[in-house]
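User: Could you check the structure of this?
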Amino acid sequence: MVVPLAAGSGIDVLGRIFAPRLSELLGQQVIVENVGGAGGMTGAFRVAKAAPDGYQFVLGGTGTHAHSQTLFKHPLYNAATRLRTGRANCGTTDRANCA
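Assistant: Sure, the predicted structure tokens are below.
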């Protein structure tokens, strides 16, 4: 799980609370990786350019999915096409929905 903000932030704490339960549900270890910078765009970009195999997902919010797309003239990624939002089917065989 890529957390696009610094360690100790609210979203980081949330990710660390979610990680153990996600590990149980997915049947494999979920590791929280903090990739801060550019208001969350750096971490979200890492997931956006990753292969859509379900092994990387971003715990983002309005900063990574909306603000970055409107405040920057040339954002690093297009959140509408490169990031899937909402509930992902990470526990099924359709792992492409997780990236």
